[in-house]
Amino acid sequence: MKTLLFHEFSHVLAFHPKLFKILNLTTTENIDGQQYTYINSPKVLEKAKLHFGCDNIKGVQLENDGGDGTAGSHWDSRYMLGDYMMATDYLDVVLSDISLALFEDTGFYQVNYYTGGLFRFGKNQGCAFLEKKCLYNQGKNTMFPNDFCNERGKSFCSSSHLSKGSCIIKNYSSISERYRYFGDKHGGFSHADYCPVSYTNPTGNNYYFPYNCRYGISEYEEEKINEDSLCFESSINNSGMKSVCYKTECNQSSKTFSLYIGSKIVTCPGKEVVLYNPNGLNGQIKCPDYNLICTSQTWCNDIFDCIDKKSQADLYTYDYNFNKTKLQEKDAVNLLIDDSILILEEKSSIISLNLNLIILLFLLLINF
User: Fold this and answer.
1) How many Å apart are CA 115 and CA 98, to the nearest integer?
2) For labelling, which of 33, 197, 260, 362 has a CA lying 20 to 30 Å from the CA of 351?
3) Domain containing 289 — which CATH number?
4) Domain that holds residue 248
5) Is residue 43 part of a domain?
């Protein structure tokens, strides 16, 4: 409830299209007849460049779907999934530096950036994350495996690793061609431009909280729910991969992190790998990048917790400032990937169909 109040109060304080216009905080562009609006104020651009790892970002897109009260006054969920100022409910609700920057850019507020780095959606994924599709090659591939998935129902933690979920893909009665990543009417989370992301259905009065690693309910053997726990995809002592919460401890000197699984400790090397039967445990576990787990010197449980703790970001974390060249090289490769293959295939099949019709008509005329 307090998160909802915080969201609505933020509309009064800063997140309102009329205020954006008065303060000249936005820019717009038309693409294929659709108008898109971006916040391009100085601090928002500064924080967005650091978060996404994109020096050429033109702004952070606002929601362009929905009616009055939705479009133009919230962040677009395709790029800001999990931030408390997007227009829908979700597993994780966190406060990003980008939202804080918007408050500062109004000129009415002073901001303390100590939210603990909980917002990790698209973190360090480069300009390609903002410019390319979430899936390509008829849904077979993604450039951003921490944020998007392509296998329906597969265990998939939220991008912040705060909550357990699975890959949401379902069949829609109608879906715009630009969002048909699978070539048909299958798509992911509708609020995120139908991109498949981590998701789970809310449960009555408890809503999403049972799936939260800090406050939720333990479902599996040796799963640990407490303020130091995060979500990992694991098959240890389970039949198949599951989203499981384990107590996590970061080592800032070695840039590794350890998971406490029952009486044993498993150390992840800091880069994205899959460990098989680690430390004698039966099964496998997917280790994310260190920067997606250990982003602050102080653990933060939610968007309010770190206001009291006054958490500061870990300046030596693997981020855009300290690994700029490596991240830019990866981004340059992603930007070259052709994510329009699906469209080309659709056009070629239409051309092929037209040619077949012409040939058929020609044969009919000859026979006639």
Assistant:
1) 11
2) 33
3) 2.30.34.10
4) 207-295
5) yes
